[in-house]
Amino acid sequence: MPSVLSIFADESGEWGKRSEYYLITLVFHDQSKDISLALERYRQSLADYGLPDVPFHAGPLLTGHDAYEGMSLSERKRLLGLFVIMTRRLPITYRTFVHRKSDFDDNRQRFEAQLKRDIVNLLLAHLSDFHSYGTVKVYYDGGQQIVTDALRGGIEYALSKDAIVYRDASPRDYRLEQVADFLCTLELTCEKFRNGEQTETDNKFFGDWKSFRVNYLKPIRRKGSARVFAHFGLRPSPWR
How many Å apart are CA 162 and CA 134, to the nearest integer? Predict the structure, then answer.
């Protein structure tokens, strides 16, 4: 049976003035690696704590909006903690590209070109590894055209078009799309802490920079760096 690689994509930010940063996270999963046990443990943990199994969405979780409205801070913290544990158990790896939008002087074309270049450079650096898969399936919910264009342009430039299957990916349907959302938020929070831009909500959930790095960032980055797809050499960039 041909090997299949799934790539789940999510973004944080938008091109307008509401966000300082723009991030794209790619989560890689070799479909021969079973994730069912980690997902079942997560569902059981939610049941044990009497918490709802809602599609994980980091932004509303932190602010207490949407599906998390009416939940106490302690309940939302518990939900976050259980999701972190599940993510650490999953046979995945990831790469996040982080950009400060002001670096592009409001030039959207320059920004779009950079996003495509990020993806192309990653794929070309590990081309033989990606080509070892019979099929590469890309999952993105199509939320922002700028991301869709970067994904399609970058991946089709570097890989065989015949090997790619594009799928719409609603977070309601794919747990790994929820993981991509969480990792995007984690890396955004890292940038804010490093630059002294963390919010009151960030401090409330994660504590100070040291607590965030030790309890959240370091375990996730260590887990995702090389254990599963060691042949990719996909290692998150070091803390700056």
Answer: 10
